[in-house]
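Same chain as my last thread, 63 residues:
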Amino acid sequence: MKRRELLRHLRYHGCILKREGRKHSLYQNPANGVVEAIPRHVEIDDRLMEKICKRLEIPPPGK
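reply #2:
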């Protein structure tokens, strides 16, 4: 999955950008306070994408 598609999905489900890092962006789900690092790769592996969504407690894209 493309990184920009994942970020769009996170924002759609209410996650906000907490801060930018050198190698990662930190997104937070304000509903539960969980913060997760999103790597700055153009392509993000599907297993990693599912793990990120699971930790942020939002549904993975396409489900």
